[in-house]
Amino acid sequence: MKRLLPGMLSPQERIKQMIRVDQAGEYGAIRIYEGQLDVLKDHPSSLVIQNMKAQEQEHLATFNRLLVEWNIKQTFFTPLWHIGGYALGAITAKLGVKAAMACTVAVEEVIDQHYANQMHELEMENLEPELVTTIKRFRDEEIVHKDQSLEAGAADAPGFALLRKSIKAITRAAIWLSTRA
Ligand SMILES: [Fe+2]
Ligand SMILES: [Fe+2]
Protein backbone atom coordinates (compact mmCIF):
# COMPACT_ATOMS: atom_id res chain seq x y z
CA MET A 1 0.00 0.00 0.00
CA LYS A 2 1.39 3.34 -1.06
CA ARG A 3 1.23 5.70 1.89
CA LEU A 4 0.49 9.35 1.41
CA LEU A 5 3.20 11.61 2.75
CA PRO A 6 5.18 8.65 4.08
CA GLY A 7 6.70 9.18 7.46
CA MET A 8 5.33 12.68 7.83
CA LEU A 9 2.11 11.98 9.66
CA SER A 10 1.58 10.25 12.97
CA PRO A 11 -1.02 7.46 12.90
CA GLN A 12 -3.45 9.80 14.63
CA GLU A 13 -2.90 12.56 12.07
CA ARG A 14 -3.25 10.07 9.25
CA ILE A 15 -6.58 8.78 10.65
CA LYS A 16 -7.82 12.35 10.96
CA GLN A 17 -6.86 12.96 7.36
CA MET A 18 -8.78 9.86 6.30
CA ILE A 19 -11.92 10.93 8.16
CA ARG A 20 -11.68 14.41 6.65
CA VAL A 21 -11.46 13.15 3.10
CA ASP A 22 -14.21 10.57 3.66
CA GLN A 23 -16.56 13.18 5.11
CA ALA A 24 -15.87 15.37 2.07
CA GLY A 25 -16.54 12.48 -0.28
CA GLU A 26 -19.85 11.57 1.30
CA TYR A 27 -20.89 15.22 1.22
CA GLY A 28 -19.97 15.45 -2.45
CA ALA A 29 -21.91 12.25 -3.17
CA ILE A 30 -25.07 13.72 -1.67
CA ARG A 31 -24.64 16.88 -3.74
CA ILE A 32 -24.26 14.80 -6.92
CA TYR A 33 -27.50 12.96 -6.16
CA GLU A 34 -29.25 16.24 -5.31
CA GLY A 35 -28.22 17.67 -8.67
CA GLN A 36 -29.46 14.55 -10.42
CA LEU A 37 -32.74 14.47 -8.54
CA ASP A 38 -33.51 18.11 -9.34
CA VAL A 39 -33.29 17.25 -13.04
CA LEU A 40 -34.81 13.75 -12.92
CA LYS A 41 -37.44 14.22 -10.21
CA ASP A 42 -40.27 12.85 -12.37
CA HIS A 43 -38.25 10.03 -13.90
CA PRO A 44 -38.93 6.46 -12.68
CA SER A 45 -35.19 6.10 -11.93
CA SER A 46 -35.41 8.88 -9.36
CA LEU A 47 -36.48 6.29 -6.80
CA VAL A 48 -33.24 4.34 -7.04
CA ILE A 49 -31.29 7.63 -6.86
CA GLN A 50 -33.28 8.65 -3.77
CA ASN A 51 -32.41 5.36 -2.10
CA MET A 52 -28.72 5.79 -2.88
CA LYS A 53 -28.85 9.33 -1.52
CA ALA A 54 -30.48 8.10 1.70
CA GLN A 55 -27.51 5.76 2.25
CA GLU A 56 -25.06 8.58 1.55
CA GLN A 57 -26.85 10.63 4.19
CA GLU A 58 -26.22 7.88 6.71
CA HIS A 59 -22.57 7.71 5.62
CA LEU A 60 -22.23 11.47 5.98
CA ALA A 61 -23.87 11.48 9.41
CA THR A 62 -21.30 8.93 10.57
CA PHE A 63 -18.35 10.94 9.30
CA ASN A 64 -19.84 14.16 10.66
CA ARG A 65 -19.96 12.50 14.07
CA LEU A 66 -16.35 11.31 13.66
CA LEU A 67 -15.25 14.85 12.73
CA VAL A 68 -16.54 16.02 16.10
CA GLU A 69 -15.18 13.05 18.05
CA TRP A 70 -11.71 13.45 16.57
CA ASN A 71 -11.83 17.25 16.59
CA ILE A 72 -11.21 17.51 12.85
CA LYS A 73 -11.83 20.58 10.76
CA GLN A 74 -13.73 19.74 7.60
CA THR A 75 -11.90 20.22 4.33
CA PHE A 76 -11.26 23.74 3.11
CA PHE A 77 -12.77 22.65 -0.21
CA THR A 78 -16.28 21.95 1.12
CA PRO A 79 -17.79 24.96 -0.73
CA LEU A 80 -16.28 23.61 -3.95
CA TRP A 81 -17.80 20.15 -3.37
CA HIS A 82 -21.12 21.86 -2.60
CA ILE A 83 -21.20 23.53 -6.01
CA GLY A 84 -19.12 21.05 -8.01
CA GLY A 85 -20.95 17.95 -6.77
CA TYR A 86 -24.32 19.48 -7.57
CA ALA A 87 -23.13 20.63 -11.00
CA LEU A 88 -21.71 17.22 -11.83
CA GLY A 89 -25.00 15.58 -10.89
CA ALA A 90 -27.19 18.08 -12.71
CA ILE A 91 -25.08 18.16 -15.89
CA THR A 92 -24.88 14.38 -16.20
CA ALA A 93 -28.63 14.11 -15.54
CA LYS A 94 -29.26 16.69 -18.27
CA LEU A 95 -27.35 14.42 -20.63
CA GLY A 96 -29.86 11.72 -19.76
CA VAL A 97 -30.63 9.22 -17.06
CA LYS A 98 -28.02 6.78 -18.40
CA ALA A 99 -25.34 9.46 -18.22
CA ALA A 100 -26.41 10.18 -14.64
CA MET A 101 -25.97 6.49 -13.88
CA ALA A 102 -22.60 6.51 -15.66
CA CYS A 103 -21.55 9.31 -13.30
CA THR A 104 -22.41 7.14 -10.31
CA VAL A 105 -20.51 4.19 -11.78
CA ALA A 106 -17.39 6.31 -12.27
CA VAL A 107 -17.53 7.89 -8.81
CA GLU A 108 -18.23 4.60 -7.05
CA GLU A 109 -15.38 2.84 -8.86
CA VAL A 110 -12.97 5.39 -7.43
CA ILE A 111 -14.57 5.30 -3.98
CA ASP A 112 -14.54 1.50 -3.93
CA GLN A 113 -10.76 1.59 -4.46
CA HIS A 114 -10.31 4.53 -2.08
CA TYR A 115 -12.10 2.76 0.78
CA ALA A 116 -10.29 -0.50 0.02
CA ASN A 117 -6.95 1.33 0.28
CA GLN A 118 -7.94 2.88 3.61
CA MET A 119 -9.11 -0.46 5.02
CA HIS A 120 -5.89 -2.08 3.95
CA GLU A 121 -3.74 0.69 5.42
CA LEU A 122 -5.56 0.64 8.77
CA GLU A 123 -5.47 -3.15 8.97
CA MET A 124 -1.76 -3.27 8.16
CA GLU A 125 -1.09 -0.86 11.02
CA ASN A 126 -3.62 -2.50 13.33
CA LEU A 127 -5.44 0.79 13.78
CA GLU A 128 -9.09 1.63 14.57
CA PRO A 129 -10.88 -1.69 13.94
CA GLU A 130 -14.22 0.04 14.43
CA LEU A 131 -13.43 2.53 11.66
CA VAL A 132 -12.37 -0.35 9.42
CA THR A 133 -15.76 -2.03 9.98
CA THR A 134 -17.56 1.22 9.14
CA ILE A 135 -15.54 1.80 5.98
CA LYS A 136 -16.07 -1.81 4.92
CA ARG A 137 -19.84 -1.50 5.28
CA PHE A 138 -19.94 1.81 3.40
CA ARG A 139 -17.74 0.38 0.66
CA ASP A 140 -20.11 -2.55 0.23
CA GLU A 141 -23.00 -0.10 -0.15
CA GLU A 142 -21.08 1.99 -2.69
CA ILE A 143 -20.47 -1.17 -4.72
CA VAL A 144 -24.23 -1.81 -4.69
CA HIS A 145 -24.76 1.74 -5.98
CA LYS A 146 -22.36 1.01 -8.81
CA ASP A 147 -24.13 -2.26 -9.66
CA GLN A 148 -27.56 -0.63 -9.55
CA SER A 149 -26.35 2.10 -11.90
CA LEU A 150 -25.01 -0.48 -14.32
CA GLU A 151 -28.34 -2.30 -14.16
CA ALA A 152 -30.03 1.01 -14.99
CA GLY A 153 -28.09 1.19 -18.24
CA ALA A 154 -25.04 3.30 -17.34
CA ALA A 155 -22.84 1.54 -19.88
CA ASP A 156 -25.28 2.46 -22.68
CA ALA A 157 -24.88 6.18 -22.02
CA PRO A 158 -23.56 8.01 -25.09
CA GLY A 159 -19.82 8.50 -24.70
CA PHE A 160 -19.73 6.21 -21.66
CA ALA A 161 -16.00 5.50 -21.85
CA LEU A 162 -15.05 9.18 -21.98
CA LEU A 163 -17.63 10.17 -19.37
CA ARG A 164 -16.40 7.49 -17.01
CA LYS A 165 -12.75 8.38 -17.51
CA SER A 166 -13.35 12.10 -17.01
CA ILE A 167 -15.50 11.68 -13.91
CA LYS A 168 -13.02 9.25 -12.39
CA ALA A 169 -10.29 11.86 -12.90
CA ILE A 170 -12.46 14.55 -11.29
CA THR A 171 -13.20 12.27 -8.34
CA ARG A 172 -9.52 11.46 -7.85
CA ALA A 173 -8.67 15.17 -7.97
CA ALA A 174 -11.34 15.87 -5.34
CA ILE A 175 -9.87 13.18 -3.09
CA TRP A 176 -6.37 14.54 -3.64
CA LEU A 177 -7.44 18.07 -2.70
CA SER A 178 -9.45 17.00 0.33
CA THR A 179 -6.50 14.98 1.57
CA ARG A 180 -4.32 18.08 1.54
CA ALA A 181 -6.44 20.71 3.27
FE1 LIG B 1 -21.25 6.95 0.62
FE1 LIG C 1 -22.61 5.89 -3.15
Poorly predicted residue ranges: none
Structural class computed from helices and strand pairing: mainly alpha
Heteromolecules bound: fe (ii) ion
Give the fraction of residues assigned to helices.
over 70%
Report the span from N to C terminus: 22 Å
- Give the count of helical stretches: 6
Could you tell me the radius of gyration in angstroms? 16 Å
Structure notes:
Helix 1 (11-40) crosses helix 6, helix 3 crosses helix 4 (97-124) and helix 4 (97-124) packs across helix 6 (160-180). With 181 residues, the protein is mainly alpha-helical. It has helices spanning 11-40, 46-69, 78-95, 97-124, 129-151, 160-180. The longest helix has 30 residues, at 11-40. It has one domain: Up-down Bundle (Ferritin). The chain is globular. Helix content is 80%, strand content 0%. The structure holds fe (ii) ion (2 copies). Residues 26, 29, 56, 59, 138, 142 line the site of one fe (ii) ion (FE2).
Quick summary:
This protein is mostly helical. It has helices at 11-40, 46-69, 78-95, 97-124, 129-151, 160-180.
Characteristics of this structure?
6 helices, 181 residues, binds fe (ii) ion, Ferritin, 0% strand
Topology of helices and strands:
Layout: H1 11-40, H2 46-69, H3 78-95, H4 97-124, H5 129-151, H6 160-180
Helix pairs in contact: 1-2, 1-3, 1-4, 1-6, 2-5, 3-4, 4-5, 4-6
The structure holds fe (ii) ion (2 copies).
